[in-house]
Amino acid sequence: MTELDKAYLAGLFDGEGSVHLGYYRHQKSSKLYPRLTISIGNNVRSVLDWVRVIMGVGGVYSCRSARGNCQEQFKWQATCAGARLFLREVLPYLKIKQDKAARLLAEEAALVRPNKRGDVAQVGRAPDS
Fold this sequence. Notes:
The protein is of the alpha+beta class. It has a single domain (3-112), classed as Homing endonucleases (Endonuclease I-creI), CATH 3.10.28. Helix content is 39%, strand content 30%. The chain is built from 4 helices and 6 strands, in the order H-E-E-H-E-E-H-H-E-E. It has helices spanning 3-16, 45-55, 80-90, 98-111, and strands at 17-25, 32-42, 59-63, 73-79, 112-114, 120-123. Strands 1-2-4-3 form a 4-stranded antiparallel β-sheet.
């Protein structure tokens, strides 16, 4: 990926993207795990397909409006390791979301403790709901 690609991705994410750190409960163990999620919305699917190809992570989804008279929208979304990879690549180029992205990367890093295989083995305490 070129520096120009990273800068373009950062601009796309600054204007049309979102970043969120949430938690999910594992079905079998009932343990709580952090989930860093990023997404970029657009009504041009080919742009988001390019994001998926160049990053090698995430997926592109159709987001139909409840109202039938709206143009079809698409969303590229990546979670966990894919979200971390994306944010680390574009962080230096972000203008609007740089502080939030850096803060959420740091918060997630403080919660995730990888096991020997690199999987999440345990998690710090989640905020009270």
